[in-house]
Amino acid sequence: MTNREVAALLRHYADLLEIQGENPFRVQAYRRAAEVIDHLTMPVAALSAEKSLTAVPGIGSGIAAAIVEILETGRLSALEALQGELPRTLVTLLDLPGIGPKTVGRLYRELGIATLADLEEAALAGRIRQLKGLGPRVEQRILEGIRFLRGVSRRFLLGDLLPLAERLAGQLAQQLDVEVAVAGSIRRMRETVGNINLVAAVGNQATLVEALARLPEIAEVQEPTPAFVPAVSTIGAEVRVVTAAPERFGTELLRWTGSWQHVEALGELAGGTLPPAATEQACYQALGLPWIPPELREARGELEAARDGRLPQLVSLQDIQGDLHTHTTWSDGRGSILAMAIAARDRGYRYLAVSDHSAGLGVARGLDPDRLREQWREIEAVQAQVPEIRILRSCEVEVRRDGSLDLPDEVLAGLDLVVASLHAGLRLSKEEQTERMVRVIRHPHVDIIAHPTGRLIDRRPGADYDWERVFAAAREAGKALEINCGPERLDLNDELARQALEAGVLLAINSDAHAPDDFAWMRYGVGIARRAWARPEQVLNTMSLGALLAWLER
Length: 554
Ligand SMILES: [Zn+2]
Ligand SMILES: [Zn+2]
Fold this sequence. Notes:
Elements: H1 3-20, H2 24-38, H3 44-49, H4 61-73, H5 77-85, H6 90-93, H7 101-111, H8 116-124, H9 136-151, E1 156-157, H10 158-176, E2 180-182, H11 184-187, E3 192-193, E4 195-200, H12 205-214, E5 218-221, E6 228-233, E7 238-243, H13 249-257, H14 260-269, H15 280-286, H16 302-307, E8 322-326, H17 337-346, E9 351-354, H18 369-385, E10 390-398, H19 409-412, E11 417-421, H20 430-442, E12 448-449, H21 467-477, E13 480-484, H22 494-502, E14 506-510, H23 522-531, H24 545-553
Parallel strand pairs: 4-7, 8-9, 9-10, 10-11, 11-12, 12-13, 13-14
Antiparallel strand pairs: 1-3, 2-4, 5-6, 6-7
Bound molecules: zinc ion (2 copies).
One zinc ion binds at residues 325, 327, 396, 450, 512.
């Protein structure tokens, strides 16, 4: 399990303790431990293996024991005991904006409220304002929150559900000894996903229900429908496991991978229903088509391209030769240059750009020219220790409001690679923002524009540009635009990346890793690039080291 997952489980436990009215110090201790684990520079499993968990400030012996249990079994029995005592529906109340576990706990203990319906009824009847400390404004906020929740069905980040879906599929496959595949929008690598769809090659739902109920990350198995067994995961994600006889496995996998528009168009070709087939290849073949990669199945011209033999050879994870935007402890990263270089080498990369923030980004320990030069000495030393990978001197240079850069030209000239990014002033008018971006792109030292819009998925809209002008400027100046792989960023998104490629712009797919674990995010960015129909030669960091160095010299 990753640090993030262990921390999430501890946090969930802290929420339930608080709901139950447990001693606030104990609640706080679990939250603090989760925070500490989130910021560790190494896997918590490694610390546990060498029995040094309690050496970490914020992790006492009780919490260390809980972490060991989570790592060994994937579950926390104390959490499960609490889940048994409290109604499951309480967790959904935590989704209400502005309502924390403390309030949820009081509502439950003092008014017996356990569901959204209970809560709405109590708020409408004015019973919540009668609780000490909760006035009419809280009541109003609750009613607004309920309306909000009903309006939007919950969506998750791809980066949160894909690893979970793969674990569930792997565990089911092992228990049932049959093939189980991840389907749905997760397989198509959409940036946000609503649920987890799995297809299992079993005919019998009863054995599936039993196996599913045994999985540690499944909270509840629900009444099966004729097509699938629904369940809910411990983080509240809906899971559907479709049963498919082996001779229909390919057909069901295709159908449940979607998109429904793609499947519908295939159905029309087939004159109604999809032909039964054991593999997807066979199903497409029966329709006179080559296999179409899931990321393309969005009814955006892929059927026509497949029919005419024009499907692109898509970029894949194996094509990626290095990472050109990463951070270390020199700014806000959590791994040293050495730790990052070793992790990158172990992924098989040929090069790694160390691109810590410049001083202009107030929040991080940004680098001024002096510290940057100091960093170059450390890069040189690490380069001697890790000769298999070329470490590039880089910097994520802050773009000022007027489009100028935060470091002087003579310093930029000493860098191998300049990554420019906008973290502030994202709300300028479209006209001003476009001017600003075009100026950055034309700066002679700039090579890559990082996370071009600055959006955070479902949290912050990005900057608004006249994209035609931005793409034209990037193509003319020969600069690369980034697909940032951070699960909350995925910026450029698939549609903008496709437009960029059509305009002849080169892309760079970068993890923006702040710790060695984050290199794993590369697959999400590659997924977005594939959804944009990107071929390897359209992506800067598929180049060999020699070709990259030549490109940087251009
Ligand atoms: Zn950034
Ligand atoms: Zn960054």
